[in-house]
Specification:
Blueprint (H helix, E strand, L loop, with lengths): L92 H13 L7 H5 L1 E7 L2 E21 L29 E6 L5 E4 L8 E3 L8 E3 L23 E3 L8 E3 L8 E20 L8 H4 L5 E8 L11 H18 L3 E13 L1 E8 L2 E8 L4 E3 L13
Antiparallel strand pairs: 1-12, 2-9, 2-11, 3-9, 4-9, 5-8, 6-7, 10-11, 12-13, 13-14
Length: 388
């Protein structure tokens, strides 16, 4: 039997599978299938203990690492000396009529008569506001990784590994999503492959490591229906497995037949933007889902390391949302990530309720969003073929 590579994982670690290398057996009954295929996950003692990386596990899942306290004072948010003057625009009657005309022209069989002959009797502004807070941050996590060992240099123990937040990484522009994987210096070492136990082979999944399988021609009987010897399997009732060529094993996918792995710690750096939106209460009667699909006019924008809550805005719910979001982002994200930049904006989403009369009856439509979308559920001339 082939001797396993020496290992420090215990007396049974690295034992060769007993079925490896077994030729096809010329017997009617199949030999017993091995009931063990070795560990599928790395053993707990496979990885070295690296100071500063004690919680690192294979495949990640250890969570994000809290950033260290800043060594220098962080910049203080700059507050404007005076709150800005909020100017809330409104649309004109001409713009409202143009929006309806565009809406009607995009609908099949809608008559334009109400647009041309209808008389606008009232326009009510129900402008609402969307407040948005965005926090751009950097998060770091670690995981043990591995690759087949082919003679690469290893550096574990040469000197202490730098901490997860001591490794330099180049961030993207603010509010741009990006990820980067960095190999942590002085953490790589050579270990026996945990999946094949250092043999470089793994059981063939097609024949369960036996090396042969039931003949498909005679179904294992060794004979044809006319009692003649099965020519396909020469009367054995079994045939060599075509996947592993009768060996019962294949090259280990983990170490690619090299028997050993170079294991090391990977630092995964993620730059992401977390955002929260608040849509001020709208009393127009227009469905909220429609407002989510349009953009607004930017009334206010503030971007810095940490922003101050908005002050003096006409809609008190916007100022309350600003205070709440800024506080919540600090609590939720500063513990596991490094906040690099915050940005808050206020958009005006214009909503105008237009009342008009046509042929002695009253109707209503809405013009909303920066795109001047129209909602006219009770438009009176939805079929140009009807009698006006």
């Amino acid at each position: 039997m082939e001797r396993p590579i020496a290992s420090g994982y215990g007396a049974n670690y690295g034992t060769v599978y007993p079925a490896y290398g077994s030729p096809a057996v010329p017997a009617m009954a199949a030999p017993p299938v091995p009931n063990t295929y070795g560990p599928t996950a790395p053993p707990a003692n496979m990885y070295d203990t690296v100071p500063g990386y004690e919680g690192t596990v294979a495949g990640g899942g250890g969570g994000y690492l809290p950033p260290p306290m800043p060594s220098v004072p962080m910049p203080v948010p700059e507050q404007a000396p005076n709150p800005p003057e909020w100017h809330i625009p409104s649309i004109s009657e001409e713009r409202a009529r143009e929006a309806l005309a565009k809406y009607v022209s995009s609908r099949c069989c809608y008559s334009s008569a109400p647009v041309k002959d209808g008389v606008i009797t009232n326009m009510e502004s129900f402008n609402t506001y969307r407040y948005r807070l965005e926090t751009f941050m950097e998060s770091r996590s670690t995981e043990w990784s591995q690759e087949p060992y082919t003679g690469q240099s290893v550096d574990a123990g040469v000197q202490p590994a730098p901490g997860p937040w001591q490794i330099a990484a180049q961030p993207p522009a603010f509010f741009q999503e990006h990820q980067q994987s960095i190999r942590v210096p002085y953490t790589s070492s050579v270990k026996n492959c945990h999946l094949c136990l250092g043999t470089g082979k793994s059981p063939c999944t097609t024949c369960a490591g036996v090396g042969n399988k039931v003949c498909w021609v005679c179904n294992g009987s060794g004979h044809r229906p006319n009692e003649e010897c099965c020519s396909h399997c020469n009367g054995r009732g079994r045939e060599n497995c075509s996947t592993c060529s009768g060996n019962g094993s294949r090259q280990c996918d983990t170490c690619r037949g090299k028997r050993q792995l170079n294991v090391f710690i990977n630092l995964n750096v993620k730059w992401s933007t977390e955002k929260d939106d608040h849509l001020a209460q709208d009393l127009s009667g227009l469905q909220v889902e429609k407002l989510e699909k349009v953009s607004g006019k930017e009334l206010f924008k503030d971007a810095q390391y940490m922003v101050y809550p908005v002050m003096g805005f006409p809609d008190v719910s916007v100022t309350q949302a600003s205070e709440r979001f800024i506080r919540d982002h600090q609590v939720k994200y500063a513990q596991t990530s490094r906040i690099l930049q915050q940005r808050q904006t206020i958009e005006l989403i214009p909503i105008t309720k237009v009342s008009y009369r046509w042929k002695g009856k009253s109707y209503v439509y809405f013009v909303y969003g920066n795109e001047f979308e129209v909602n006219a559920d009770d438009y009176p001339a939805t079929c140009c073929c009807s009698v006006m």
